[in-house]
TrEMBL record:
Divalent metal cations. Prefers magnesium or manganese. One of its GO terms (cellular component) is cytosol. It catalyses: (S)-malate + NAD(+) = pyruvate + CO2 + NADH; oxaloacetate + H(+) = pyruvate + CO2. The active site is at 144 (proton donor), 216 (proton acceptor). This is Malic enzyme. Pfam families: malic, Malic_M. The lineage of its organism: Eukaryota, Fungi, Dikarya, Ascomycota, Pezizomycotina. GO terms for biological process: malate metabolic process. A divalent metal cation binds at residues 287-288, 311. (S)-malate binds at residues 457, 501. Belongs to the malic enzymes family.
Amino acid sequence: MAQSILRRQSNLPLSLLASHRFTSYRPATRMSTSSRSSKFSHLPRAASGPLVCQYEGRDVLESSQFNKGSAFTEEERRSFKLHGLLPPNIQTLEEQVQRAYEQYSSRDNDLAKNTFMASMKVQNEVLYYKLIDTHLKEMLSIIYTPTEGDAIQNYSRLFRKPEGCFLNIRDQDRIEECLSNFGGGEEVDYIVVSDGEEILGIGDQGVGAILISVAKLALTTLCAGIHPARQLPVVLDCGTDNESLLKDELYLGLRQPRVRGKEYDQFVEKFVTTARKMFPRAYIHFEDFGLHNAKRILENFQPHIPCFNDDIQGTGCVTLAALLSGFHVSDVKLEDVRVVIFGSGSAGTGIAEQLADTIATETNKSKEEASKQIWCLDKPGLLLKSLGDQLTPAQAPYARDDNEWPGEGLPGLLSVVKKVKPHALIGTSTKPKSFTEEVIREMAKHVEKPIIFPLSNPTRLHEAQPEDINQWTDGRALIATGSPFPPVDRNGMKYEIAECNNSTCFPGIGLGAVLSRTRTLSNKMLVAAVKALAARSPALQDPNGPLLPDVGDVRELSVDIAKAIIKTAVEEGYAEEEGIPTDDNELDEWIRVQMWEPVYRPLVRPH
């Protein structure tokens, strides 16, 4: 196999919560499946038992999938001809983690730590994932946002070894040839693809987008146990409009303006068609596509294949789960809620879409009526119908009638907050400090517990700091952010800041889609994922608790979400996998057995 592919009384709608039993919240305990037998151990993706290795000698050490470094047993050293290639002392994985963490800690800045981890990943994937798993909360910001954004911006200058599949728009006839380097048929479960136009709030990064695909797939393994050997990161290089890259003599991508229009659409279509031909059961995850392309590409393929856009759907799901928790704590009903979204790109409109769908479903309102409870702003100001063709297809449903705002042109954020008196304010603008003290204090005048989510990434682009929001609302705000922040002081106590981290959501969705072999990822499945995530909110048990569960419990969250996805796929008739258990406990075990874990499995030679 190719190596790189490797429940106080709640006012929340009962239909959102009925399928989950509330107990006092406590950190989840992971149940390892790697060392115990199971009736499902025979499954092809069962992550236990011996691992067949066809290499020997130096080739074993050069394979990130099989390399154990100093942890090869004496028997393995003999069988795979490793004597003389390794120091004699045999160490445990835990000892290796200790040494690797000391090396990691010696790096003097976050980007250097990111580079160190990237090098480790291509050398020894088990050690890479075990190290992160051991220090998850510390390292997540290093291997993903915000530090990954810095790595992507410097991709061509930090380049050492290629990882993933590079497709460029000038060489479309070779797409199949390029993809064939990564196997075929059943060998790939999960593909992440990006065209690099809107990366992590830092814009067009061209070919450097391969790193966002790599990082997202690392998270699916870390958070949901997707097999690293059954993944494929892809970049669609269409050129770049980033002048600094075009002028950089070391830039590795196509040195030309970004291609758009018909040729671009043909490129995306050809990639998806070819990928589905070669890997007919693979789940395709679109990542960081531009505002004018993301939604239409998703809508084009969603009815026909299992696909997902994290910027639209993942952000919408995790933010909606936090919102539902906030509505519970603030005692606001869905049919009454007023939400202002500042920033109407893929993330902002994705949140609006998920929220409108939920309001409509749970209150029996029409989607159009539900949309009237949401006010969206973008760079010019409030979205109004008079903007006409300037509105993207994703923005149009949320544009307000101009007669609601006579003589105001395009109202700004403060004007909207004064008039709307929102219960919730969400920032996806990448405009730092745009949630000013005046805006926040105005909002806090009208609602007892203002729900405020500055979500833009990386951290330097946040609309406001949690500490300031807490101070400006006299400790009344319910806060969630897009990156990790320390707790804030509130009446002598610590208030934990919830992180709207997509990694608590999209890996579990992908796991459920992969294991069920669903033909499509329906809106009903996404609602089920939101239910599963919202049910884990500590705020449902303690109003002073964070609105979302801790990222440290992400593996258990992924199991819950995957179960919800699989059950819904079966219910809707989309699941194509045979033998999916109907008993809830058996389904739980069936999922866990197929989740890869960072442990060294015994290596054996092929028969």
